[in-house]
Amino acid sequence: MARKASLSGFPEWLPNERLVELHVLDTLRRTFELHGFSNVETRAVETVGQLLRKGDIDKEVYGISRLQAGESTGDDPNALALHFDLTVPFARYVVENAGHLSFPFRRYQIQKVWRGERPQDGRFREFTQADIDVVGDGTLPFKYDVELALVIAEALEALPIGDFKLRVNNRKLAEGFYLGLGLSDTAGVLRNIDKLEKIGAPRVKDLLLDEVGASSDQADAALALAQIRTEDMSFIEKVRALGVEHELLEQGLAELGEVVEMAVRRAPGRVVADLSIARGLDYYTGTVYETVLVGNEKLGSICSGGRYESLATKGNRTFPGVGLSIGVTRLVSRMLADESAVASRHVPTAVYVTLAQNDSWSDAQDVAAQLRARGISAEVAASAEKFGKQIKFADKRGIPFVWFTQEDGTHEVKDIRSGEQLVADPATWMPAAEDLTPRIAAATA
RNA sequence: GUGGGUAUAGCUCAGUCGGCAGAGCGUCUGGUUGUGGUCCAGAAGGUCGCGGGUUCAAGCCCCGUUACUCACCCCA
Q: Which end of chain A lies in a sparser environment, N or C, as judged by fewer CB atoms within 10 Å?
């Protein structure tokens, strides 16, 4: 059971919960590196001017000020603030280090981010994001849009989170469609279509009529597009059947088709073409991704991103990119809440070395050192309490083995779960591989 | 930022009409004096969120406040 933090929105896990989070982080790191992504870390703060480049989100940003100085971060673009995602800092990093990087540059970045939003289930003010992006110099082949969807599907598949769906759409497809319909405020249409799942078609239609000046037919057509959802290439025929024509629409169909075609082959069942996905942020220009846990759709997206033709600019150079961001904290909070993953024990210790007499502590440390030298985590009792108490100490922590040294200098090790106690040699004894370190087990559904 | 709900032991929660602060679980100790888990007995553990008011008397009623929480907004 996930414990609620004392400061809302700033979660702090217990040791066994943190083990689950570490397992997620280790798994992501391993998957990303297997696919050749380099890691970078950027500073926690950016200037306000830098952060607000991509939109009016100043309400979400935590400013930094020195208490003594009584400074106000107010409107000063040079004031410092905590980053609220990893994409904007990465864009700055790319520009500043362009001369040292080789493009296309693929990097992953796993860090805390901060947002001054009202916390709720699965929504935090301090949380960890795991980003992967590929950024090019001037151009970036579309194949990366396909590749990133597959890398993310693989990464999520390696986690004990149950079934998920990576929903993919394409901005060009949607915008071309709206333009072909004669709706020029494509951003406005997108913004309202994005609410479809939450508020339903009738209310979205009202919004389209009121806010973007669509006719009833135009609104119906936009809604019809958004209702298309297929796990194969058939979405293309369904779009064509709506009878709208536009050059941008054709481009979008071709691009989304490429992602879906490859996903069907390489990640079957994980990717769905979902033409209702819009994504709130307006810097996406092509592919957009959003991921939900099947059965936990209300939690919101656990991973999203997209293609942006201009991640950053430097002089007359532009750096297009495509990337996705996994909401690690949201994911972990869900895994803890529904106990879909639990640590096999609370501590790293595999062997608890007991003490027969208080003055045998140093000898016990010699035993522990021999075990540690072979990669076995060992801990020595602090006082020679009754063996019953020492065993209980280990049992409460889930330590699987208790070590006894006899008066004659021989050793025995007890498996605390079976009660089986055998003669053992500290120079050669090994626990079973699954007992060496805490394991994260997926609950069997 | 807007609206609703909640706040009592480490955890989950009772607390009647305003009249001595409670239970279960957990923790600790002992039974069992150097091999745990079960069982039995006992113990410790409280700023009743905080501040004010009404009253002979407030966990309970009134006002304020803070935190938490759900929804809106927005997003991982």
A: C
